[in-house]
Design brief:
Two copies of one chain form a homodimer.
Chain A: H1 4-7, H2 22-31, E1 32-37, E2 42-44, E3 52-58, E4 61-66, E5 72-78, E6 83-84, E7 95-98, E8 102-108, H3 109-118, H4 120-146, H5 149-170, E9 178-180, H6 185-192, H7 196-208, E10 212-215, E11 219-222, H8 225-232
Antiparallel strand pairs in A: 1-8, 2-7, 3-6, 3-8, 4-5, 4-7, 9-11, 10-11
Chain A binds a DNA duplex (30 and 30 nucleotides) through helix 7.
DNA sequence: CCGGGTCCTTGTTCTAGATCAAGGCAACTG
DNA sequence: CAGTTGCCTTGATCTAGAACAAGGACCCGG
């Protein structure tokens, strides 16, 4: 019965849980609890005690670092099947907030750490994912520090298009030369370390150059992927 | 006999190996090989096959990300007892170069991964370190994207002073209100995502304000730690 | 159909920091 | 010890992008 919660899990093939055998899943499920989150709602607050971790089932979350005087930087985005939380940390270093409505499969941090000890395949998978996240974060450091506004925006569009494409594949759809941005201009600015205005201007420029078409605020069509890639330059 | 290599290991209490029991150490040592590196020498090249990992015994290394056209960003610094390398990755994403003469304890990547499988305490320690490195990288993203030149330099000085202090503690010395920068202005600029000139100007400004004293190019004395902290602002 | 959100675009001005340029100061080298 | 080299400082100028400001498009509730 406790496995039933997993029967309809949209990410059971991709989340951390994919490393578990049937018996492991049953134990794990017993420790988990599903939770729905509304867009804009915060899941973890920087400075709060780190009590829960979670697998993201659906929706998109942002992880935000902030200075004392309120400047903000998005330091990570989470998509379905991603693991969220800070095991082994006493308190959260960052605030995690939903960009869209979302669903989480949560687990208490301590029991989770304990579970890892006894399920080294999951521990190993988490290690591999953490290493990948670290690599990604380091790449982003180069982006934030050294790329121009144009390069940043082009790069982000490519990332988001790739993400959309993968999701489309998964759900069997096709051809996402057109896709919806999962975030506002403001969030794009927060990811790229720029202002809303500059993001907007760069998009307008890409549109003017015939690289993109924009319809509505969120829908983007990549008309010239080659040109877009050229503008992203980096790596 | 193979353990002898560890007998004089300067970091055996702090490196990944500290998670091993005697028998583990013996096995591990058999897989390791010490290697000396000259300042300026590169240990791993971005794009090359990821064949080795290492524990740093002495010296300081930098990890550099670069764009195709040569812009560079230091995305990580490694100090004694730190783990270097990219397990589970087919190729290196970043270039690792010695800032000072250094000594490494290297191990082939594949055998290392295999060893982790069988020594879950080490795997767990690596996981914890990787999580900490990730947190650190994310903090740095905020720094790179949102802090002013003055805040960046003040913050880096505080970090380096703290690092120097810890090393001094370890080796039994005291009072490192005065310490040596482990890097040139150019490296500081590469860490902070700015230019040499701006770093230099910020240091001159701090000196002028009586916060620091500079003697020679590398030696720094923090005269007013409180003021320095105030200038670092962030977090 | 109106009023007030929220989000986005566009124009103008301003500035932090990059870029360009010129020395200064040690430390080596022959 | 004159010359070279590497690293650092300081000054002058330039510019990408921030900051400020205004208005437009869309949506939703009454």
């Amino acid at each position: 019965m406790s496995t039933e919660i997993c029967a309809d899990c949209p990410v059971r093939k991709h989340a951390l849980c994919s490393s578990l055998d049937d018996e492991g899943v049953i134990t794990f499920t017993g420790l988990c609890q599903r939770r729905c989150i509304m867009a804009g709602e915060t899941v973890m607050w920087a400075g709060d005690e780190s009590r829960i971790c979670a697998n993201l089932l659906s929706g998109v979350l942002k992880m935000v670092a902030a200075t004392a005087d309120g400047r903000e930087q998005i330091v990570g985005l989470f998509y379905p099947a991603d693991f969220v939380g800070e095991p082994y940390a006493e308190e959260h270093a960052f605030t995690v907030t939903a960009l869209t409505n979302a669903e989480l499969c949560t687990i208490q941090r301590r029991p989770f750490e304990h579970f890892l000890e006894e399920h080294s395949r999951m521990e190993n998978l988490l290690l591999q994912r953490t290493l990948r996240a670290l690599k990604e974060a380091r790449r982003r450091m180069l982006c934030l520090a050294r790329l121009s506004a144009g390069e940043k925006v082009a790069g982000l569009l490519i990332d988001m298009a790739a993400r959309a494409e993968r999701c489309a594949r998964r759900s069997g759809l096709n051809q996402p030369v057109t896709f919806d941005l999962p975030m506002t201009r403001g969030h794009m600015a927060d990811v790229l370390g720029m202002t809303i205005e500059t993001v907007s201007r760069q998009l307008t420029k890409l549109k003017g150059a015939g690289v993109l078409a924009l319809s509505g605020n969120r829908t983007v069509t990549i008309k010239d992927a080659h040109a877009l890639r050229a503008r992203a330059a980096a790596r």
